[in-house]
Amino acid sequence: MKNYYEILGVSKDASHEDIKKAYRKLALQHHPDKGGDESLFKEISEAYENVGDENKRREYNHRLDNPMAGMFGGGGGRNPFNDGNVDDILNQMFGGGFGGGFGGGFGQQQRRAPEKIIDIEIDVLESFTGVEKEMRYPRKSDCNTCRGTGGDRSGCLTCGGQGHIMQRMGTGMFTQVVRVVCQQCNGNGFVITNKCKTCNGTATKDNFETLRVTIPRGIDNGQMLRVPQKGDFINGMIGDLIIRINLTSKNSFEKNGNDLIYNAFFTLDDLKKNGFEIPHPDGVLSVKFPKDFNTQVPLRLKNKGFTTNMIGDLYVKMNIKYVRD
């Protein structure tokens, strides 16, 4: 098994910043465009791809500490040049032109953990001004006892550690071979031979996370915000958190695109006055009653709506509230 720390010239307990600095120095020195050795450059990039990311470094350290585990579940075969962690740095160093010459045949796309989606309620006035929200949500993190492995692992004999098997389907002339998920290991490529007593082999523990998130001005119903690395721990990786907005009315205000809608209710006594007030989030607005009072036609106050991208208007829906004796 390759020792990626030795390839980068850093110790196993080196900080992320030290690893990043070492990689940048070696990448500059050995990049083929600078006359360096291509095979050595690929090895350096592979090393950084495995230890320059928190999730992958944890997986690699586990395989390094448990050599037998490295025989199963595979850590190799991925293309270091398809990984954003490496590409971002190379693009910074070489003007964004990297990636065309080396990514051709290096294996599969980088695996990612599924996102965790949660809903959060935001009222119209909070959307108008923008707001910082504190939220508490259930989250799965890696088990401290087994370090997120679930226990002792053994390579799946059914699929040979691949996580899938080739299966012939159909009859007669209409048969084809397809790749299906291995049912023995559920696609993991390994089976747990000795379950962790703390997590019972799930590799995770349930807890609650408290998070403060800034909700931007003008956010609308159904829009989503992504918070990296705040999702669940799944199969050795931490997914992103997706916050889905559920927009609600507040104090008779609603939102329609960039327009702010206000539902005003008047009694017969109110109509004897010259006008009325609207508790607009930017300050109270004094409005005169129109001469032609028509509940079917809303009043329009220009440029008093949302200011996201373009300035919207405020529409006042006038309603009569009358209680008979």
Could you explain the architecture of this structure?
The protein starts with a helix and ends in a 5-residue tail after the last strand. The longest helix is centred in the first third of the chain and has 15 residues. The protein folds into 4 domains: 90 residues, Orthogonal Bundle (Helix Hairpins), CATH 1.10.287; 84 residues, Urease metallochaperone UreE, N-terminal domain (HSP40/DNAj peptide-binding domain, Sandwich), CATH 2.60.260; 45 residues, no CATH class; 68 residues, HSP40/DNAj peptide-binding domain (Sandwich), CATH 2.60.260. The radius of gyration is 30 Å and the shape is elongated. 19% of the residues lie in helices and 32% in strands. Helix 2 runs antiparallel to helix 3. Strands 12-13-17-16 form a 4-stranded mixed β-sheet, with no helix packed on it. Strands 1-11-8 form a 3-stranded mixed β-sheet. The protein is α+β, with helices and mostly antiparallel strands and 325 residues long. About 9% of the residues have low confidence.
- What is the name of the CATH architecture of the largest domain? Orthogonal Bundle
Low-confidence stretches: 69-84, 96-109
Binned, the helix content reads 10-25%
Percent of residues in β-strands: 25-35%
Figure out the total of helices.
6
Number of strands: 17
